[in-house]
Structures are given as C-alpha cells and as structure tokens.
C-alpha cells in the first residue's frame, strides 16, 4: 500500500490533531506481566504524572485503549509540555494532499504495521553519557490519543540549551518524569496503538545513528529489554536518493533542509521533539510519494535494535 494513499486518507487529521489537546493522568501500569518486575522492584512513593496527548477520532483495530488512567511512580504534578496553537494550523493549509485514483480510494486496505514517527532531544551526542530530555511520537493511523509528547528529567545538567531551548529549570520539576518512569507509559501507549499480530515500525530521521541508539541505552540503563516486534526505519539514507530540479543530489538531507526543499512551513521552534515529528510526517509524505515507496518497502528497509553495533557489543 502506498503511503501517499495513507496520507490522503489521514492528511486532514494530521493537521487537525496539532491543535486539539487534552491532559491525561498517568499512574502505574501493570497490564503486561513481562514488565511487572520492572514496576514492582522499584518501591518508591507513587506519584501522579501528567503529560500531554493530542487527541483525534477513535482509532479502530488496536489491542486496547490508552485511557486516562495509567500508572507511574511519582508525586502529584501538572502538565509542562509545550503544544501547538490552533492559530498555527493555517500555515499548514498550503500543503496539498496527493490525489489518489478513485478506484483505489474506495478499497479497504489493511496496514502491515503500526507506523510511529518519533523524535528525541538529548543533553548531547554521547549515547553512553548523555540522556534523553524530550520524547515525542505520532501514530500515522490517527485516532484518539494518537500523539504523545513529554519532557524527560535526565538527572544531570543540560549544557546544550542553546540547541533546543530546554533548560535545567524546565526539567527539574516534579511533573517531569525520569526515563525509568516513562518506560511503562510508553509501552502502554505503543500497545494501545499496535494492531494484533502486526509489528511496530518506528520512523526517525537519522534514527540509526542517533535516536534508536539513545533509546537502546536508556532502556538498558533501566534494565528493560525493548520489545522484539519493534522495527525502525531511518529516513536519512532514503532521502539520499532525492535529486533537485537539475538532476543533482541534494547538498544536504538534514530534516531542516528537506523541510525547505519541500517548502513545508515551520510552526514553533525547530529542534523541539514534537515540531520535528510534525515536520518529518510531512517530509515522509513527500518523500515516499516522490520515490514511490510503499509501506512493505519501508518494512524491507527496517532494522531491529539488535542490529545496531551498540546492541551487539552489549551481548
């Protein structure tokens, strides 16, 4: 199935979801026995953790719902996530959905995987020494609670605030979870989006070199194994196939350069996780259409966390 068909059916939902927000209360999750040890071994005072979910219409075919009651260690907190304003949606209207043959538009299709576009911000570039400080993800299928984002307390000083604008003051608050506290919530979110017997395909730009190794080390520090049905696609090497109007390869395939190449408007600050996720969603739409890539072809380009050199060296 072509991703251009996917975006044609969900493009307006992608835009509409940016401004529709709701807060959810996250408590401690026990729904999966495999992770009970993680949740029960850390005897801490239970705290309520609030984060932000951008809500849309109800999604069908998922294993379970991601309700307003989730479990997480911590103390009572309030939302601290920066979200997009409704007024900013006007800038996205200049992006047009690709036309799809009428014959195709009436055909019921089935996705071979749950596709999650994600991005992280970190304290630096060292996967071993630095930490994730912001995480954002969007499920391309849409539906209720299809977008999730949160700051993450790295438990260390942030010295690169000039890059993303995230300061120690923003992170050292009781409403910001540590990564070990975020894991059960993240797993529950993914399970709520995942279709039965289908893998989860995570999409990130420069994911093989940056985002995925960072996630691997964060999970490893928390002594939690990443699910085996999580697959990853890096859009950066895919973008290397693009050429400009003169038939030459693009001088740069950074996310920012691809945004400018495709004339995608920027709302909010670049180098914030949710903004980069939104940009990558639009870039993915254009990229897969231009290169005529289907979802099965993206799956063929995917890799597992065990394929990373870092993961092999830890065995």
TrEMBL record:
GO terms for molecular function: 3'-5'-DNA exonuclease activity; metal ion binding; nucleic acid binding. Its cofactor is Mg(2+). CDD domains: DEDDh. Gene3D superfamilies: Ribonuclease H-like superfamily/Ribonuclease H. One of its GO terms (cellular component) is cytoplasm. Residues 114-293 form the Exonuclease domain. GO terms for biological process: DNA catabolic process. SMART domains: EXOIII. Keywords: Exonuclease, Hydrolase, Magnesium, Metal-binding, Nuclease. InterPro entries: Ribonucl_H, RNaseH-like_sf, RNaseH_sf, TREX1/2. Transmembrane segments: none annotated. Belongs to the exonuclease superfamily. TREX family. This is Exonuclease domain-containing protein. It comes from Paspalum notatum var. saurae.
């Amino acid at each position: 199935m072509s991703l251009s068909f996917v975006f044609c059916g969900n493009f307006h939902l992608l835009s509409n979801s940016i401004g529709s927000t709701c807060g959810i209360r996250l408590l401690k999750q026990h729904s999966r026995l495999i992770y009970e040890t993680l949740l029960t071994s850390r005897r801490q005072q239970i705290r309520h953790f609030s984060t932000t979910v951008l809500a849309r219409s109800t999604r069908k075919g998922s294993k379970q719902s991601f309700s307003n009651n989730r479990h997480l260690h911590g103390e009572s907190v309030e939302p601290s996530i920066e979200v997009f304003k409704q007024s900013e949606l006007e800038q996205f209207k200049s992006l047009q959905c690709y036309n799809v043959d009428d014959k195709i538009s009436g055909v019921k299709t089935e996705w071979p995987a749950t596709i999650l576009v994600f991005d992280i911000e970190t304290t630096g570039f060292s996967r071993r020494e630095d930490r994730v400080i912001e995480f954002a993800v969007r499920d391309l299928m849409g539906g209720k609670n299809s977008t999730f984002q949160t700051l993450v307390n790295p438990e260390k000083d942030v010295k690169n605030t000039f890059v993303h604008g995230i300061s120690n003051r923003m992170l050292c608050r009781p409403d910001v979870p540590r990564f070990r506290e975020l894991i059960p919530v993240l797993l529950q979110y993914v399970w709520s989006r995942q279709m039965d017997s289908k893998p989860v395909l995570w999409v990130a730009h420069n994911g093989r070199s940056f985002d995925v190794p960072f996630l691997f080390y964060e999970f490893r520090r928390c002594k939690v194994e990443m699910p085996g049905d999580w697959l990853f696609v890096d859009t950066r090497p895919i973008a290397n196939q693009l050429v400009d109007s003169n038939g030459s390869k693009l001088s740069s395939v950074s996310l920012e350069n691809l945004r400018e190449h495709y004339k995608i408007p920027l709302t909010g600050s670049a180098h914030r996780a949710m903004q980069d996720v939104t940009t990558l969603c639009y870039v993915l739409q254009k990229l897969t259409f231009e290169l005529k890539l289907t979802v099965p072809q993206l799956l063929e380009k995917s890799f597992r966390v065990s394929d990373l050199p870092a993961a092999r060296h830890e065995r």
